[in-house]
Design brief:
The protein is mostly helical. The chain has two domains: 2-62, Orthogonal Bundle (Arc Repressor Mutant, subunit A), CATH 1.10.10; 78-209, Tetracycline Repressor, domain 2. Helix content is 69%, strand content 0%. α6 (91-106) packs across α10 (162-183). The longest helix is centred in the C-terminal third of the chain and has 22 residues, at 162-183. It is elongated and about 65 Å long. This is Transcriptional regulator, TetR family. Residues 40-59 bind DNA. It holds the Pfam family TetR_N.
């Protein structure tokens, strides 16, 4: 298959962006539902309304498509602009915007399904789980760490370990709400409850990491 594709779609061949978007959309839907092994390139091609040859012309193999689907989903919910310190928005407001986008991402039906597959051990190998981590959560953490570094340098935060602080922020955001949703033991979460959860998380984080009197060590 790869030899035929190389001959048909050589370097410089224009790509149909609409078809690429359709393929990614299908992949983002099917991988969480059926796992990596349970999702075939034929199924993705069918869902996207294209041929399998077209799928391979845009994505060289299924692992590449899996990675791109994860990266695209994360970028949709948490674009780089959210972490742009140059926007110079109020710190609390920017933290709440990031928090809301992250919580929205991890509580989608697709994200919940993918999380269950990865943690069950039935939907992906350790290699695929690592690929998911590197192209999803790891990139989000890295972007947030740079944001925290910039805000710390500006004197708005006092953080000794930005990597740990980033991890703690996102762990706080998941909290009990995310755990209850994963277990399927709660009714749909009301917007008011989500708003209160996000506000409390950001407030807790700022109290722990905000500037403090000289001589008092930062909590993180």
């Amino acid at each position: 298959m790869s030899t035929v594709i190389a001959k048909t779609c050589g370097p410089g061949r224009p790509k149909d962006l609409e078809k690429r978007a359709a393929i990614l959309a299908a992949a983002k839907q099917l991988f969480p539902q059926h796992g990596f092994e349970g999702t075939s390139m034929d199924a993705i091609a069918s869902a996207a309304g294209v041929s399998k040859l077209t799928v391979y012309s845009h994505f060289s193999d299924k692992e590449t498509l899996y990675v791109e689907a994860i990266r695209a989903r994360c970028h949709e919910q948490l674009p780089e602009e959210l972490f742009d310190v140059a926007a110079r928005g109020p710190l609390r407001q920017q933290l709440e915007t990031i928090a809301r986008a992250f919580f929205s991402l991890i509580t989608t039906d697709e994200a919940m399904a993918l999380h269950r597959l990865l943690t069950s051990g039935a939907g992906a190998s350790s290699k695929l789980a690592q690929m998911f981590w590197e192209q999803g959560p790891k990139l989000i953490h890295a972007a947030f760490e740079k944001f925290l570094e910039a805000r710390t340098s500006a004197g708005e935060l006092e953080i000794a370990d930005v990597q740990r602080a980033s991890s703690q922020f996102f762990a706080l955001l998941k909290g009990e709400l995310h755990a209850r949703m994963l277990c399927g033991c709660c009714d749909p979460i009301r917007k008011e409850e989500i708003d209160a959860h996000i506000h409390a998380t950001v407030d807790f984080f700022l109290r722990a990491c905000g500037p403090r009197p000289r001589g008092v060590r930062p909590a993180t």
